[in-house]
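Hi R.,

As promised on Friday, here is the backbone we talked about, encoded as structure tokens. Could you run it through your design pipeline when you get a chance and send me back a sequence?
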């Protein structure tokens, strides 16, 4: 097991750490780290476990993957960033409707509402009217924009299950926070050996 601790702002200490676990797991999967799990221990530290023993250089590489702050962006089909999660989104949550099933509702900040109105007005008139929601360099959702949206809340609908809607909401919530991580200890050769000895092998 490899331990990481938060180095975010005081605001990030208030976030549900399970949300961050979901996003770390997403990032690990995107970067090709298979056989991994992310949990939170009793000290509030994030624990990344693998079903195989990592070498020292792999641990260093893993730290680079996980320690970059999450960056959530809303991007049009031309690659223009029209809104950032850190300033435009106040909260994302899963909702359910009998007719439409599960969907994700975004609550926007006042700045986000203005940016989203301006963006959807332009995107709805484009031939490719998709709005990509991106975490780092990965597209996590790309809904179509049919009209100008001027509201404090935005709905992302689709063929969501409860699990997939919760996962999207968690990723959006983590991406709007000033959250970054660091390895609990600096790695030396002996540290890497010690970590390897305590890596879970199943």
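Update: got your reply. Pasting your designed sequence below so it's all in one thread:
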């Amino acid at each position: 097991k490899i331990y990481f601790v938060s180095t975010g702002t005081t605001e990030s200490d208030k976030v549900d750490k399970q949300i961050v676990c979901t996003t770390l797991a997403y990032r690990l999967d995107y970067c090709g780290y298979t056989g991994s799990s992310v949990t939170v221990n009793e000290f509030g530290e994030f624990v990344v476990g693998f079903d195989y023993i990592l070498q020292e250089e792999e641990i260093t590489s893993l730290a680079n993957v996980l320690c970059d702050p999450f960056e959530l962006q809303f991007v049009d089909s031309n690659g223009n960033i029209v809104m950032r999660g850190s300033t435009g989104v106040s909260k994302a949550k899963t909702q359910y409707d009998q007719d439409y099933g599960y969907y994700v509702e975004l609550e926007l900040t006042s700045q986000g509402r203005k940016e989203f109105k301006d963006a959807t007005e332009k995107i709805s008139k484009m031939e490719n009217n998709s709005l990509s929601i991106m975490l780092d360099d990965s597209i996590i959702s790309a809904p179509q924009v049919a009209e100008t949206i001027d509201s404090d809340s935005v709905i992302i609908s689709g063929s969501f299950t409860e699990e997939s809607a919760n996962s999207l909401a968690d990723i959006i919530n983590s991406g709007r926070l000033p959250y970054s991580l660091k390895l609990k200890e600096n790695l030396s050769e002996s540290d890497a050996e010690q970590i390897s000895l305590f890596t879970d092998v199943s």
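One thing I noticed while checking it: The chain is about 35% helix and 30% strand.

Thanks again,
M.
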